[in-house]
């Protein structure tokens, strides 16, 4: 059995195939594959890109915020997904708060999203609670922009944020240095007060370990200047920092 024969079998079953294999299919098999995939469930990003506009609109309406979330979160090109969604007829009129969460969190230009949403965006922010702001910030590649679009709510959130929330933001964020930047003195104070056990937990459970190490290096330089005395230096050595 040739590789092409094997791919044809996958096409008939509706099992997901990698994009490079999809690109090897002729037009008829591509159409069959997409039809089978639509019958089977949720699509991955490249499949979504390949859909005709009318079918794409039906897919969005069928899966709603759950399908939108999966498309955005697992895509290598979330902004491309977001641009398509925003240009889809009827999407803005029907968008709900869960979908707005994902649009803002995963976009490189959340301010553009807010401009497009108009009154819906304003209403969304007015109803946003602290937990909702937390959920916006930690997945975002641009947390500074998130805080900016929130206006007074963003300022209030930063002013009232507590050490437990700071710890969670740093652990879950892929851009912890940007989290420290938006926290300002609060973030620096938090880092400076961490003991060795707290640093150990932060390093062990964070998504952006290397970036956390850089933050601690920056604000706790004595870890390296007192190598023979510092318990924290030994901790850094454990995590292969030095």
Please explain how this structure is put together:
It is a single chain. This protein folds into 2 domains: 119 residues; 82 residues, no CATH class. α1 runs parallel beside α3, α5 runs antiparallel to α6 and α8 runs antiparallel to α9. It is mainly alpha-helical and 242 residues long.
Q: Key terms for this structure?
A:
242 residues; 75% helix; flat; 2 domains; 20 helices; single chain; mainly alpha
Topology (elements, then pairings):
Layout: H1 3-13, H2 19-22, H3 27-40, H4 45-50, H5 53-73, H6 78-87, H7 91-94, H8 97-106, H9 110-117, H10 119-126, H11 130-137, H12 143-150, H13 152-160, H14 163-172, H15 176-183, H16 185-193, H17 196-205, H18 209-219, H19 222-225, H20 231-238
Helix pairs in contact: 1-3, 5-6, 5-8, 8-9, 8-11, 9-10, 12-13, 14-15, 15-16
């Amino acid at each position: 059995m040739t590789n092409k024969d094997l791919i044809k079998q996958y096409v008939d079953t509706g099992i997901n195939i990698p994009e490079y294999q999809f690109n090897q299919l002729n037009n008829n098999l591509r159409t069959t594959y997409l039809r089978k995939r639509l019958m089977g469930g949720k699509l991955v990003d490249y499949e979504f890109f390949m859909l005709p506009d009318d079918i794409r609109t039906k897919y969005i309406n069928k899966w709603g915020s759950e399908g939108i979330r999966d498309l955005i979160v697992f895509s290598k090109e979330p902004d491309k997904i977001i641009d398509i969604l925003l240009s889809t007829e009827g999407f803005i009129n029907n968008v709900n708060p869960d979908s707005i969460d994902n649009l803002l969190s995963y976009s490189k230009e959340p301010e553009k999203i807010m401009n497009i949403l108009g009154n819906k965006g304003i209403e969304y922010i007015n109803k946003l609670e602290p937990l909702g702001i937390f959920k916006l910030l930690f997945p975002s590649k641009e947390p500074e922009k998130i805080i900016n679009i929130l206006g007074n709510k963003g300022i209030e959130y930063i002013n009232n944020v507590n050490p437990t929330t700071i710890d969670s933001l740093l652990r879950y964020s892929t851009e912890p240095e940007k989290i420290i930047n938006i926290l300002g003195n609060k973030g620096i104070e938090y880092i400076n007060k961490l003991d060795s056990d707290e640093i150990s937990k932060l390093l062990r459970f964070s998504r952006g370990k290397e970036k956390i190490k850089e933050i601690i290096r920056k604000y706790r330089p004595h870890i390296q200047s007192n190598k023979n005395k510092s318990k924290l230096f030994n901790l850094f050595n454990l995590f292969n920092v030095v």
